[in-house]
Each structure stands twice: as structure tokens, then as C-alpha cells.
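From the pipeline queue, job 12 of 40. The input is one protein chain; the requested action is below.

Action: predict structure.
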Amino acid sequence: MSMMRRTLLLAPFWLAAAQAVAQSAYFPPRGDWQRAEPAAVGLDAAKLAEAVAYAQAHDNPAPRDQALALAQSFGKAEPYFGGQIGPTRERAAINGLVIRRGRVVAEWGDTRRVDMSHSITKTFLSTVVGLAWQQGLIGSTDDRAADAMPPGVDLFASPKNAPITWEHLLRQTSDWQGTLWGKPDWADRPVGKTPQDWPSRPVHAPGTHYK
């Protein structure tokens, strides 16, 4: 049997399967997710309970005071130049959700608590850039970021920063150089054996070095 004939014969089954998936797909409204028993969505209830118990028993040992936690972690090796920018908030106790097929199958702790976000904001920002591209606000990720700056903003005006594109920024390979909010670029994860080495960090062309 030819490939074309097999494809034509199987097409009704593919269409039926796709229609079934479309009919069963569940997209929860904001703030009102359905709940389900683990078995109803193909999960082992005992194993799920074991995983939840493990998570509850392994809270982050760092201080809940975020100002203190930041100062005691990578902040120990970074100059503050006047301290943190803006306030911090004490984080909540451990909490979490397990979602399967769009439905909540397990929940513990205060999951409604609004806590600070740190590195996860990179995903939020990349999504915003994606929406800007989709709406035509950014023609291409290969466009220079300098071309999108408002009048009077010189963050990408120097010969070092002028070639930086959105692609470089999104991939964290821009090696942007300068001062922002009164803090020099080298103050973030400073490079060198002594503080005297930090301002003379190695300089890389955009797109050639990840940091």
C-alpha cells in the first residue's frame, strides 16, 4: 500500500483523535482552577502524597528576610554602592501546587501569598519582548536596542554598547558596559582576584560571552 493511500485511510482516525482532544481540553479561568483527584488524571495518589511530604520537609534554609538572604548569599562578594534598590519583603513559608491537565491535584501552604520574584523574572521579561515583537513594536530581535531608546537615554550610545541587539540581551550575551542606578556593570558578579581588579574586568564583543 502506498504512503499516500495509508495516509488517506488513517486521516479520519487522526481527525477524530484531534477533535476528542479539543473537546476534552480544559482551560481554567483566572483564579478559579478546577480540582481533581490524582487517580482521575492518571497519577498515583500515594506517590503524589510522598512527593508533597518531601517538598514540605525541605524548605529553603536561607533567611526569610530577603534583604538578609541576599546579603548573605552572592551579596557577600558584591559592592553595594549605597545598598539595595527598593524595598524587600519577607518570603512566605514553603507552599506549592501540583497541576495535572489543568487541574489542581495537590496544594499546601499559602499559595495566594504574593512573594518577591528573582531570576524567574527573566522568563517574564522575555515573554514581554515576545509580545512586543508580535505587535510590531520590535521589528526583529536582530535590531539594535539603541534604535528603540527614547530621546535622552544613552544606555546604548557608546561604541561598546551600540552594536547590542535584542538577541544579545535576551541571550545574556550583550556584555553591556556602563552605570545604571548609580551602580557599575562590573559590580554584578565581579570578576577578579581582588576588589581592585573588578573595574578592569575583561571586555567582550556582544554575542561572544555569556554572563
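Job complete. The longest helix spans residues 3-24.
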